Amino acid sequence: MSMKKRQRILAIIGMMLVLFFSLILFDIQTNYAESNRLIQGTLQPTEILDDVVSLFSMVPTMVGQGPDEYEPNINPLTGEYFENPDIMDRRPIAVKITNFPRYTRPQRGLMSADVVYHYYTEMGKTRFVAIFYGNDGELVGPVRSGRFFDEHIVRMYDALLVFGRADARVLEYFYSMEPYFQKSLILENSNEAQNKCNDGKFVVFCRDTEKVWYNSVHVNTKALTADMDRRYIVNHKPDLSGMYFSDVPVEGNVAFGITVTYSGASSVRWDYHIEEEKYYRLEEIDEYDFETNSFSYDQLMDDLTEEPVTADNIVVLFVEYEYFAKQPEAESMIIDLYGEGNGYAYRNGMAVPVKWTRAEDASMMRITTLDGNPYPFKIGNTFFEIVNTNTDLSVIDGIHWHYQFYMPEVLQDEIRPDARATATPSVMPTMTETPTK
Question: What is the reported pTM?
Answer without folding.
Answer: 0.85
